[in-house]
Design goal:
Layout lengths: L6 E4 L2 E4 L4 E4 L2 E3 L3 H12 L4 E3 H8 L7 H19 L5 E4 L3 E4 L3 E4 L5 E2 L12 E6 L5 E7 L3 E5 L17 H8 L2 E6 L16 H15 L4 E6 L1 H12 L4 E7 L12 H17 L5 H11 L6 H14 L2 H12 L14 E6 L7 H10 L4 E5 L11 H14 L8
Parallel strand pairs: 12-13, 12-14, 14-15, 15-16, 16-17
Antiparallel strand pairs: 1-2, 1-8, 2-3, 3-4, 5-7, 6-7, 8-9, 10-11, 11-13
Helix pairs in contact: 1-3, 5-6, 7-10
Length: 409
């Protein structure tokens, strides 16, 4: 950060980056060089989640070191900050993922005192994360942010509420939806902040998880958004509970999982991929990472976006859970339920989607009564903010949800 300010204040501390000093009340506190660099990185990125992988890359750019070295630095910082300011709370820990500096930070050296804010790409406010318990005892994490008529997103493979909050692949979705709605998301069982040690990973369990989140959120009537695998869960929920749904939005969705839309030859290849997931998921295997990221963001993805998707593997699920989720997705078949969906429905699908064939979107739109279909010109499964298709998506969804007029509950 060549143009970053040289001095910061937080709590009762002063951090001088240029002179490499941490002071409290004019008294200098002793920090080892790598501990100081760890604090500098956290303060310079105050309010942002920094993954362990990112910190390791920046602190030891040319050396392969164990994660324990980073843990020791964080422990040393907690001791220093806690001794002087009650404040191990300055550093927030997200288990298995990374750290966020949450104390208010001010830059020093200009006539006015400024608070360090997240960059303009970030959502406008912090999300509120809570947990609910399903009938089979599984803990599900859900989050809400924004104000207005509720819009709930069904979970898909893969999510992580906190890690995706600042993600270059998800932050534009969160930012736009929270401009108009109370936006509610959750992590499905087996990944993210929800329970990982679960016996049942199945389509029926996912639908029950959605029902549990709706109840815990206190929703009577709301708009429901289903992306990819989450589209099938949303379809089933809408068929069961039409009185709850005012609008159903499906993007890159399918009613038939892989096992129901491919022949036996293709299934052999799919099983081989699931074996690779069990072996290479979350590992630094360039060939596997490249194959995975190119499927989901095959057009115009930046290195930052590709790296985030690679990191998502490590923080979102174990290799076994990732494979189990894939297998459960393969077994989905709600095509017979499509005629039973009676709520207003908008279906959008990228015309060269490499994860879910465009034909699947056309099937959904043709067999849900009165559904409207919008093709999007893109090869991506996850729309990126820079591509024209993203603006088409926003325009169509905004018109469908009436963003220019208030939605009544």
């Amino acid at each position: 950060m060549a143009n970053a300010p040289g001095r910061y204040e937080f709590a009762d501390f002063q951090l001088d980056v240029r002179e490499r000093r941490l002071l409290r009340g004019g008294t200098e506190l002793s920090l080892a060089p790598k501990v100081f660099d760890t604090l500098r990185l956290l303060v310079e990125n105050a309010g942002h989640l920094m993954t362990k992988e990112e910190l390791l890359r920046q602190l030891w750019p040319d050396t392969l070191v164990e994660e324990n070295n980073l843990n020791k630095n964080i422990s040393a910082l907690r001791k220093v900050l806690g001794e002087a300011s009650e404040g191990s709370s300055c550093i927030e820990t997200l288990p298995r993922v990374g750290y966020r500096f949450v104390a208010a930070v001010r830059t020093v050296g200009s006539p006015s005192v400024n608070v360090v804010q997240p960059d303009s790409h970030q959502p406008p406010s912090r999300q509120e994360i809570r947990f609910c318990i399903t009938e089979d005892g599984t803990r599900i994490a859900f989050a809400r942010v924004g104000e207005g008529y509720p819009l709930l997103k069904a979970a898909n493979w893969l999510n992580h509420l906190d890690f995706e909050w600042e993600s270059p692949l998800w932050r534009h979705w969160i930012r736009e939806f929270t401009k108009h709605h109370t936006f509610i998301r959750y992590d499905e069982r087996g990944n993210g902040l929800s329970d990982w040690d679960v016996a049942d990973i199945s389509f029926d369990a996912w639908v029950h998880d959605l029902e549990t989140v709706v109840g815990a959120s206190g929703l009577d009537r709301f708009a429901l958004f289903g992306l990819s695998q989450g589209g099938a869960v949303a379809i089933e929920y809408a068929a069961r509970h039409p009185e709850r749904i005012s609008h159903l939005i499906l993007c890159g969705a399918y009613s038939r999982g892989y096992s129901h839309r491919h022949n036996s030859g293709a299934l052999v290849g799919r099983q081989a991929l699931e074996t690779l997931v069990r072996l290479d998921w979350g590992k630094n295997n360039p060939a596997f990472l490249s194959m995975f990221t190119s499927l989901y963001t095959s057009e115009n993805a930046t290195p930052e976006q590709e790296q985030w998707l690679n990191d998502l593997q490590r923080v979102s699920a174990t290799p076994e859970n990732a494979a189990r989720i894939m297998e459960a997705c393969d077994a989905i078949n709600v095509r017979s339920r499509l005629p039973h969906v009676s709520v207003p429905t908008l279906v959008l699908h990228c015309d060269r989607d490499r994860v879910v064939p465009p034909e699947e979107g056309r099937i959904i739109a043709a067999e849900i009564p009165n559904a409207r279909f919008v093709p999007l010109s893109s090869t991506n499964h996850l729309l990126l903010p820079e591509e024209p298709a993203w603006q088409v998506f926003l325009s169509e969804v905004g018109r469908f949800l009436g963003w220019k007029t208030a939605l009544s509950s």
